[in-house]
Amino acid sequence: MTRIVAGSAGGRRLSVPPSGTRPTSERVREALFSRLEHLDAVDGARVLDLYAGSGALGLEAASRGAVHVVLVDAARGAVEVCRRNARALGLSDRVDVVADRVDRYLARVVPAATDAFDLVLLDPPYDLADDELAGAIAGAARCTAAGGVVVVERSSRAAAPTWPAPLVAVDDRRYGETRVWFAERPVD
């Protein structure tokens, strides 16, 4: 069972796609969001959740006070589950669900400075090739506001991501088989 950990929808259940996704465990989400709240990266934030799956990360952010969340996934089943979860949690007024491949979405989205994302979450399939992940991180860097945070979640056996300028690595944490890396885009 997957649930929202805290915030306005805390404790509420999430549906998950029947196959093809690996929802982030509640324990990892609780630790991840504790770190993000310490960085003041959630409340009032514009959030981009790439490889959304069930939408658990982005919906957790919305539950904890993010003002706008975009969930992106290419799998039709995942997109439908994200939409259903946003409606069931009463968060659909702040959540947009985009059915597209991450690379295509990032290639066409170039937000103005006022529309850039304050928090970008990447939780790709563990078998995603390193060069594809590097492309997604580069795209995320272009969409991240000054002072914003980018998070990558992968297997603890995976190599650390390469952070393109202007992103700067700030932390990484290991939770069993999961490792989470954090980078920030410095304020100019």
UniProtKB/TrEMBL annotation:
<feature type="region of interest" description="Disordered">
    <location>
        <begin position="1"/>
        <end position="26"/>
    </location>
</feature>
<dbReference type="InterPro" id="IPR004398">
    <property type="entry name" value="RNA_MeTrfase_RsmD"/>
</dbReference>
<protein>
    <submittedName>
        <fullName>16S rRNA (Guanine(966)-N(2))-methyltransferase RsmD</fullName>
        <ecNumber>2.1.1.171</ecNumber>
    </submittedName>
</protein>
<dbReference type="GO" id="GO:0052913">
    <property type="term" value="F:16S rRNA (guanine(966)-N(2))-methyltransferase activity"/>
</dbReference>
<dbReference type="InterPro" id="IPR002052">
    <property type="entry name" value="DNA_methylase_N6_adenine_CS"/>
</dbReference>
<dbReference type="InterPro" id="IPR029063">
    <property type="entry name" value="SAM-dependent_MTases_sf"/>
</dbReference>
<keyword id="KW-0489">Methyltransferase</keyword>
<dbReference type="Pfam" id="PF03602">
    <property type="entry name" value="Cons_hypoth95"/>
</dbReference>
<keyword id="KW-0808">Transferase</keyword>
